[in-house]
Request: fold
Amino acid sequence: MTATATTSMSQDRSASTHDLIVIGSGSGNSVITDEMDDWRIALVEEGVLGGTCLNVGCIPTKMFVYTADRAHAAATSDRFGLHTTFESADWPAIRDRIFGRIDPIAESGRAYRESNPNVDLVQEHARFVGDHRLEVGGRVISAPRIVLAAGAHAVVPNLPGLADVEYHTSDTIMRLDDLPEHLLVIGGGYIAVELAHVFGALGSRVTMVVRGPELLRDEDPEVSRRLTAIYADRFDLRLATDVRGVHQEGRDVVLRTEDVDGASEVRGDCLLVATGRVPNSHTLRVQATGVEVDESGYVIVDDHQRTSVEGIWALGDIASPQQLKHKANADARLVVHNLLHPDDLRSSRLGPVPHAVFGSPQVASVGMTEPQAEAAGRPVATAVQAFGDAAYGWAMEDTTSAVKLVVDPATRLLLGAHIIGPQAPTLLQPLVQGMQFGQTVDDLARGQWWIHPALTEVVEQAMLAV
Reply:
């Protein structure tokens, strides 16, 4: 669904407090460029400058994941004839190394914006109170141009007793003082998968309670099935299980659960609630300025990132169900151009948005899954190629990783690509490029060199197998 500019601005620049208001300092921060030095701009940020990715998302989690990967490798290298072990993790040292690098970046970003003579940094909660009018810190600011880049926040389900126990979301769990002995995780999406790997590899027992029958249910079934089997070997994985309530007993958090076998309890000393993230449109009260949202709360935008209200744009997680930093950055570049060149509006032509999950193993996907292609009525040819059938995968003793391709048999164009295994996001990139530039699987496989015996050969083999 696309938006159209239907509401006229009720104020001109002379009646406004600013020329531009940007709400959110993640990718929204990059909207403010040198070409706007003669504009008076308000940058509104309720939290820490830098947004989700820098402070509680992509950057710190991947720094933890990389550390966890090293620990997991040390604990599982016996099959190569290596006598390595993992003894323990110095959690405070790991945490402080990571945030000792991240926190100064956020602080320097704040100092830089405060030094900009044309930018008012407003570190307050914001909510719309009328047409292009925003209440922040007890005062009202307005502008003919507004960019909504306020992101999303963690969902906290309405579970009986949850409000009375100590629990964490992805926003807080990485700042723990101590490594949990037994981490309970509610959820089976990408946040749950990544953080279960982190804490499990560093020494915590992990129990994952998942409502559905598999992990990463939105991935292609081949990927979901393989990842679920691997995590079932690593962790206490409770699938098709509902959480009926939560309570505290001393230091322990106790989950009351129910599955096909009946009711039971599981207890641990730390609880992570990883049940998804929702856009911040509601907290901003965007409807008060006429901006339309969909049934999930995402701000509706057109191909130029315009909302339903003239002069108001949106980018990133508040407008994109993918909730991906590379998507938000691309949105921001588009908004910058369109703000500066209103008579030469551009739209994105980057094609399907790829994504990755940095658990162990890694997952990377782009385009349609096989069920999605079939539901769309597309003819489908598929191939699944095991890493272990390629020379480098064989050297890795890999028995669980694979590439799956979904191809239109008539055009030989990729409809989707799905990889589970080491280096999955890197291996996916040539397939993303092929989809974007209209290359057939035959052109991709035979129209270029594939280095032997690099792991990329498994991608070549998958295309030849379709």
The chain is about 30% helix and 25% strand. Residues 1-11 have pLDDT under 50 and may be disordered. The radius of gyration is 24 Å. The first helix runs from residue 51 to 55.
